[in-house]
Model the fold of this input.
Amino acid sequence: MYTQLFGTFLLENNLINREQLIQAISSQKEKHLRLGTLAIHAGYLTSVEVEHIHTTQTKENKRFGEIALQLGYLTQEQIDKLLSSQKPDYLLLCQALVDLGFMTTTQFEEAMKQYQNLYELSDLDFSNEDFDKVALHIAEFFSVNALEDPGYFARYITLFFNNIVRFIGSDFAPLPITCQDKYSGKYAAIQEIYGKNRLISGISMDEDTLLSFASRYIGEDFSENDEYTLASMEDFLNLHNGLFAVNLSNDESTELTLQPPLYKEELVLDTPVYVVPLAFPFGTVHFFFNAL
Amino acid sequence: MREEKILICDDSALARRTLKTQLKELGYENIFEASNGEIAVSTYKEQAPAVVFLDIVMPVKDGIQVVKEIIAHDANARIIMFSSVGTQANLRTALEMGACDFLQKPAKTEDIRNILSRLIGG
Done:
């Protein structure tokens, strides 16, 4: 999740715009990490040294590693270590942004340092995503600390993101959270939960986005919306809320009761809701919840 | 092909479709569907299926109430609670009411095969 939130951080700090972020997210899937990106991340090379190797590559028909060895920037041992190391996801985003010309490696590095310092995150946090730590980060990132039970909502949002990654895909950026006095949306599914906190949550999206959302969720290509694509929203929401209820039951012995999810072609909620739009390459999925 | 009748009770058309596809992959052809608890009870009484896959969160009549009514009609009914809400309380209540087992959604076809194999063999 740190990678997705870092994308939002870049957006909020005007380092890239929304279209650029979505374009980078779309292209990062097809990318393979290059040795230069890995070497900068490991602290073996600076971005200036990587640029020097790239310039040399334009004159000599050799691979990156060979030139790095030749120039004395890397040892064979370091190259072997880089190739076998675990690679954090955000490096793919970095490479996509750099390749598309939206940022330089140096700008990306500086932004990453700023992000890590601001939220006191280490490289290790990015490699080993611990649920509770991510939830704390999300509470701070989305300022849910202002809510009555921030821990509860942070866990709820974190699990929602995890389920989005698990059932829809990781190629999204959560856009800044907003609080709206009323909420209206087309193609929506809502569900009410009773228990520790009474909660209404839901998702909504436009018709085209629904088609892609359902195709990914169901694992089939749909050319037009039908009862199954509409049901995919309710199904996903019920699955997410069910898993949340299971987690609370197992971890805190807190029992929640779920009402059946409802599909609304035109949803109007006359009550304040928090909305987190998730920007996917295929469209935006609006996730909303209301603490009653 | 397996001859046993299977009843799927779930308010989600998509969940019914997914489970039906998985059951067909396992060779089951006699599959009945119910979109709410009330229809589930009446279909059970009409068809006497070998196994029921039963969701918990449903409109009209929830899964726990359905277990109670089916067991009152047939104490030997084989009911698998099939839900995303596998909380301690739901599990305990469903098993106390007479359900045989619980399967967490989403389930792999292999898990469905194993649970059916335990209940009706094959």
